[in-house]
User: Fold these one by one.
Assistant:
Number 1:
Amino acid sequence: MSDTAQISARARRALLLAPALIFLAVFFVMPLADNSARSFIGEEGGFTLARYASFLTDRFYLGVIAETVILSAAVTLISVVIAYPVAYVLVRKAGRLSGLIIFLLIAPLLTSIIMRTFGWQVLFARRGLVNQWLVTDLGLLDAPLRWLNTPGLAIAALVHVLVPFAVLSIASVLQGVDRRLEEGALMLGASRFRTFFEVTLPLTMDGIGTGAILVFMIANGSFVTLVLLGGGFQTLPLLIYQQFNTTRDFALASTMSTILLVIALACLWLQLRLVRRQGV
Amino acid sequence: MSLNRRKFLGTGAAAAGLVGLNGLPLRAQTKTLNVTAYGGVWEQAIRDCFVAPFEAKTGAKATVSLGGPAQWLAQVEANPENPPLDVLIMTPDLAVLAAEGDLMDEFTVEKLPNLANIPQAFTDACLGKGTYFDYGVGGITYNKQAVSEPPMSFAAFVDRVSSGEFVASVPSIQYGPTTVFFLWALNNALGGDVNNVDPFFEAMAKMKDNLVFWAGPNDFFNHLASGEADLGIYFDGRTWNHVDEGVDWIDFINPEEGGAMTAVAIQKPKNASDLAWDYLNEVLAPGPQAQFAEILNYGVTNTEVVYSEKLAARVTPLSKANLPPYAEIAKVRNEWVDRWNREIGM
């Protein structure tokens, strides 16, 4: 191919990519850069790291960062543990029912997250359905339990929202696992248990990794569920919202959002490394 | 002449450009005002009570942008030379901030004849660059089926919630007005002041085991309706709205110490269209204000307004509400929020 033809092919490729790249640059990279830049500009207009220094040396804010990461990790772990068996049944056992299971998984995502969260409030209120069963219908308790504003309920609600993401990620990888490898292991005398842990599970680590990353990222930035169900959690998204809505300290909000972004990227990198180390 | 695809697209783009250019002067000539409103009933009330008479009198058009004061102010701050909004609905603290930032025009009777019937204190509270046109009062709303003898004062509210007699739903710090209509009001009732909010935080520590927090007004109603709470801190107007919707188990008390007046301010950004004065004058007029009050169950500020019998019994008189010192609160609000985060949590 002549040089001119090669240049023309390259130019055509660049032109085809240009709309997407320009869109990303204008609506994603530039706002993100502008947002982060605010956190480095002092009152006088010069460069400063003062906000980061005060944020990262304050025990309260360090606690908020820890709470954000621990909450996201807990939600991720529970979601993956719940999602794997569901994905397994969906791919290996459901047969003609797989369409119905996928529909049931996706259906909740079609309703507003606010409605789903209000649903938890109605179910678990002091005079809600669950307490009515426990106290009135079954007589198991003398007085209703207080579920709302407890950490357990907030985590359960987040898991409810995020499990479908993990199921779909794991199921898509499980679907591609070569069944002959598992059959080979069984024929060579491995138990079903050993076959699962030494063949199937390692082959689906990519799906688990993708699902875990997705769930972790969304949990990391989750806001509505924690605002409405409380749970006593103090996380970065809640504090960021507060800086915009109540205190109007945009520079502090930018500092927090940059830290949240760095945490998310660090966790993403770590999870990718862990998944790759499995040799998949 | 042969018409290939390239020529066709080129000619089409040129034609579209010409049509677009042709439209520009037409749009510039159209008299259009961009005003603001909260969503829901509020939006419809703004359209019916203020936009409609404004359009009828001036022949201009008014578009209504939905959202919230923090967002609107940020939009004006981003482009003060050519603000995208001509009239802002504001919370009192943000109105002070906007006035201090020299982003708003001064309100005078020359520009707004109806301003003559608005108490001067409300214009002063916006530093002369805006005024209040509507107000509610934060007090005690309770479920009549769960609370037969409600606390009549903030002090009694704190004592009875602390003792476990009731579970109370109170606003969380995520809700913008919380620092004023709850923190300042309760602190004030318990003997504190703007520079000493210890009484409030001590009361919260005593009540903490029997509190749930609401993040938005609908959330409060859910807490009461689902039995999660027996009573709580809420607004008079919103309580009456629920009553009008058929909720017969809810009632409101303006505490003996006086609830905090939670006003809605109105402002005109500098460099906004001068048509805004005509609209603002309509917002401050007694007729439209009376109509607005009937729809929303909130008090309005024009002293010439005569409420219906039903509304007169509901609206908390200005004399029985406390006007918070918004400008002073604005100076210490961030410290209060920080203390709340550290001592109470979200």
Note: The interface with chain B takes residues 60, 118, 121-122, 125-128, 144, 146, 148-149, 226-228, 230, 232-234, 238-239, 241-242, 244-249 of chain A (CB under 8 Å).
Number 2:
Amino acid sequence: MISYNFFKRIMPQMIILGVVLFLNLLVFPDFFVIEFQNGRLFGNVIDVLNRGAPTALLCIGMTLVIATKGIDLSVGAVMAIAGATAASLVVDGHYWLTAVIGALTVGAICGLWNGFLVAILRIQPIVATLVLMVAGRGVAQLITEGTILTFLDEGLIHLGAGTVFGIPTPVLIWIFLGGLAAFFVRRTALGMLIESIGINEASSRLAGINSRILLICVYVVSGICAAVAGVIVAADIQGADANNAGLWLELDAILAVVIGGNSLLGGRFSIVASLLGAIIIQSVNSLILLSGMPPEFNLVIKALLILAILVIQSPRVGHLIYIMRASSPPIKSDPLTPAKESNR
Amino acid sequence: MTNDPTPMLHATGISKFFPGTIALDDVEITLNRGEIHALLGENGAGKSTLIKCLTGVYRRDGGEITLDGKHVNPQSTNHSQILGIGTVYQEVNLLPNLTVAENLHLGRQPMYGPFVARRAMNAAAKKSLLEFGIDIDPAQPLSDYPVAIQQIVAIARAVEMSGKVLILDEPTASLDLDEVKLLFSVIRQLKARGIAVVFITHFLDQVFEICDRATVLRNGQVVGTRELNQVSQTDIISLMLGRQLEARLQEPKPKSSGTLLLQIKELGKSGMLAPFNLNIHKGEVVGLAGLLGSGRTETANLIFGAVKADFGQLKLHNKHIQINNPRDAVAHGFALCPEDRKTEGIVGDLSVRENIILALQARQGWLRPISRRKVDEIAQHYVRTLDIRLANLEMPIRLLSGGNQQKVLLARWLATDPDFLILDEPTRGIDIGAHSEIIALIGQLQKDGMALLVASSEMEELVTYANRVIVLRDHKQVGELTGAEITSNNIIRAIAAETEHEGIA
């Protein structure tokens, strides 16, 4: 399945990631050094992968939602709800796995709600998910009863702060889920059908595609991904913070999808490219941190770097590059009209 | 009326090409001073393309325009307004939150130093509207007034700015009878002032009521210009729908095999289509004829479940079936190639391969993907048998020409091996070559025993392949022609029957 087209698709993201990582190396020569201490890998690269986990998880679902021409603004709030659910369940003495399953179920229900508003009531996705974005933090606060709900359950904490074979668990989780999702949508016909809906829902419906169910499904997947991210974040700080968990992360996730070269107008998508986008964002964060700039510069510099990335990817610049390439060597084939057509 | 014999506007050799189609082919039109000239034709005949070429929205690929004796070359809507050609569209493009006077004078308000001379502006607006016989307060927001008044304000604005040629694109589509009368009185005044008015509409009664001459377009060509007091509605309809193939010898059509496939009983939807009955047999082509808006597309959509019917029953192979959406229809072996290929047919950014496989895959469900080898086999099979011209299967379908897109859509449905294929305007907007190939394909599918329902505005096409023709008018079935009865003349007569009757009464 890994074909030439696949590499061509993710090449821009790979190049950008390479450049950002190189900049990291310039400001911090030991950037790529990885050490093995106390049964755990340490290093800046590991850190980037680990810190990038929540955004990466969010952008799996967000990619699918955006491919259907939608958007899910509620993922940050769903993270808070899921974190609060997991925390309150273990605090009540439930087994950690039960707590995780409970959190994922809540995430799925949140997604179902969004899907219902979008697919059945036909509310515009940005408005529909805004409802839960605003209300979700309130729900989370109700669950935690207004406090930061801390817990000491080893099993749950492991998901956020533990390691497996020396690799931080969050890294394994997002790589596994991301790979699974990417593989699943391409090995089944799901990817094509989702793209079809995103490009032209009327045509897709007339072709017999059950667009409602598919739309609901992508929002549910997005809700579940957000729940996983919420559990990881809560486990990492050993507490559920209804106000701050996942705050503004929905924007990072959308940005990651965009950096991944997916159009907000829906259609063609690549989960792998989105995941690279998430890692690019985290690498930019790391770059700012390592460069030793005063922290007040952070947001401005991040904005500038991301602006640069988006400009490079913009259709105008892309067209210019295309023209520059096309004008140098002779064009080999005329793709549209074979000679036969004109004979008629 | 002025007596100047030179025409107000004369356009010759107007041509416009779009990729894969010729939208306008050497079109000539003459507008006299003080004349109301109807521009007629079915959808896609080239009316709006012609208007856009005359007003500079499109850059024409050939031809010359003479306005008031001078060569002109309008570059944009603005430019054509300055030259003297004004356009008013069906959906009024004015600013509803501004006052009537502001709308009339936008961009050229009377000034008083740096300020708008509001009183003078209102007075001027009042005066110019009074000339049209409308007495309203121009200081009120435009949105306070009904569409007809808004329409007339738009006309007044266009006339004051341009004043030589006024193009009215479907001005009466959303007006009631009294409003139409009001609008017509305004148009007659413009005629008296010597302005050349172009009137585009689908309402033939209105054309005969107000217009002096009519130019009829079909497939991007002028098929005739007529003095309206010398012709009947039937003449105009036959011009619009065409019957030049009449003389061609008809191949004997294959007889339908006779097994009843689908029985439709009292299927309908209120406000959309009156209940109708229809039986369709295997190996039979049933044609749907009628003017635009007569209910052809609605019939196709109701049967396929694209629009849910209010009432009615379907029986397939003598068993009751329920069709609530296209998914159900596909499951029962139905297929529909919709009229509007671009918005309802193709999935533009998906590859040709994916577009071909889409319906089959949707029917199988996403969990059972069709293997790549099978997909390629199916896609290549149809590319070969339907002679689809493309560089490769990976290219997005939107890059194909209209005819090839239509063939891909046919392939999409043929891949599902349907029992019953509904084609809505299968040959609209495609080049002549693909046109005849698709007609041949319809004949072939019929021979293979498929049942087809074909809605078309092209009479001679229906005559070529249909075993039966259902005639629709005003969202009702009004007639059925079978066998030797199916001729262009009879179809046109059936369509025109009632309108003609009203015209005489």
Note: The radius of gyration of chain B is 26 Å.
